[in-house]
Amino acid sequence: MPRIRLRGLDIEVEEINDQTFEELLGRKVSVPANCSYCGGNINIVEDKLIYGQTYGNQLFVCENWPKCNALAKVPPNNTTPVALADRILRQARVAAHNAFDRQWKRGKLTRSQAYEKLSRLMSISRAECHISMFDIHQCQEVIFLCASGEFQ
Ligand SMILES: [Zn+2]
């Protein structure tokens, strides 16, 4: 079995293939092919191993963790595409989310209206308009739009 180092611990992980994932999770999931940052294989672990406490999630983690810190939450179903994010992208998404939420919650728009407006301003469809799927440039754009007061 492959091993990875997590939080200073040497951990044995399941050999990953689609079937293992499905057996492990009891449901179908779309598995990222390889790490989009370093090309490493993707392992699945309990979030406790990464965060030190559990939030009840399982994570796709690059086999080269923590040198490569790409990870993604295993989605609850197979409808969500999975894109791994490194630490910087995760921080950018949190910052974009915070700026966006802070602004529409204080303003006149509902959450749904704010997302509608965001998708229009970013020229993407509403279906693609999820900060959790944004790349770093899109996160910067959200923060810029918030700084311009677009969602007040
Ligand atoms: Zn990687």
Main attributes of the structure:
binds zinc ion, 152 residues, 5 strands, single chain, two-stranded antiparallel ribbon, 2 domains
Distance from first to last alpha carbon = 53 Å
Q: Quick check: average pLDDT?
A: 82
Structural class: alpha+beta
Ligands, ions, cofactors? zinc ion
The low-pLDDT segments are none
Strand content: 5-15%
Helix and strand succession? EEHEHEEHHH
Count of individual helical segments:
5
List the quaternary state of the chains: single chain
Number of strands: 5
Profile the largest sheet.
Answer: 3 strands, antiparallel
How would you describe this protein?
The chain is α+β, with helices and mostly antiparallel strands and 152 residues long. The protein has two domains: 3-73, no CATH class; 87-147. It contains five helices and five strands; from the N terminus they run ββαβαββααα. The strands form two sheets. Strands 3-4-5 form a three-stranded antiparallel β-sheet. Helix 3 (87-106) packs parallel to helix 5 (136-147). The termini are far apart. Bound molecules: zinc ion. Zinc ion (ZN) binds at residues 35, 37-38, 40, 62, 64, 68, 70.
